[in-house]
Amino acid sequence: MKSFDDELHSMVLSEDGSYTAYSKEYEEHYHSTRDGALNESLVKHVIPALGIKSGQDEVHILDICFGLGFNTLATLYYVKQNNINSRIHIYSPELDASLIRSLKNFTYPKEFDEFRHIILELAETGYYDDGLWHVEVFIGDAREYIKKFENSFDIVYQDAFSPRTNPILWTKEYFSDIAHLIKKDAILTTYSVALPTRLALYENGFHVYTYHTKGARKSTIASLTELEGFEKVDIKHKISCNPHAEPLRD
Ligand SMILES: C[S@@+](CC[C@H](N)C(=O)[O-])C[C@H]1O[C@@H](n2cnc3c(N)ncnc32)[C@H](O)[C@@H]1O
Fold first, then answer.
1. CATH number of the domain to which 195 belongs
2. 58: CA distance to ligand 1 center in Å?
3. What is the reported pLDDT for 215?
4. Residue ranges lining ligand 1, Cβ < 6 Å
5. Does the global pTM surpass 0.90?
6. Which domain does 224 fall in, by range?
7. Could you tell me if residue 227 is left (phi over 0), alpha (psi between -120 and 50 degrees) or otherwise beta?
8. Domain count, the chain
9. Which of the four, 166, 200, 208, 244, has the lowest number of CB atoms within 10 Å?
10. Residue 1 binned pLDDT confidence (cut-offs 50, 70, 90)
11. How confident is the model over 141-187, as pLDDT tens digits?
């Protein structure tokens, strides 16, 4: 098989035995190598989000950003494993066209073997639809892409490179656009627990929760509607302890 590695990306083994990639451009891994690529995707994004949303007939997901596609593929894996009958619609922007084309050479975990045909179609056309699952990868800037939606999504996987590396996808203005494009009871998941990220969410009307489960570090869940059964972050208290903290701005 042709190698995935090129001048911008290289494949790296993560601690759960699944491969992730390292971006030489952003100087960052696509996943936490410690939490593991597949594990991180499942426990920080898919399980908490679909745990709440899988009872619906239709689930609309915004996957920011596609990268190697783990969040999209782990969603399909979880849906199949748990016999979830919802029609799944996934929309995912990705700036790096050459990365998407090279995904056919990436070594995915065996859990994704049954989705090989989906990976190949997405790598070639950016589109997959089998009547039950619909996936669209948009090649371009996420900030532009999200402007075309309104009140559309049940779930947002906020999985950009870190706020330090890719601040434009973590600002107060960015989360204002996100608040506009989601349904009122949507769930946003992110690995970031940074106070500026949480402030950017809070200042756009999100309730912010810490999510912690065995096998991964803490992450964040947010919703415009109050959620039961999650550990709410007392943002006012955090601000009083960190009076100079501010959200990132455009
Ligand atoms: C951390 S990786 C995403 C990991 C992905 N969720 C996965 O499971 O593999 C971040 C991705 O964001 C993409 N990206 C960076 N800036 C972007 C932008 N403005 N619009 C769309 N994609 C962007 C990068 O090319 C990279 O593939």
1. 3.40.50.150
2. 25
3. 85
4. 30, 41, 65, 67-71, 93-96, 99, 141-143, 159-161, 166, 169
5. yes
6. 36-241
7. beta
8. 1
9. 244
10. low
11. 999 999 999 999 999 999 999 999 999 999 999 999 999 999 999 99
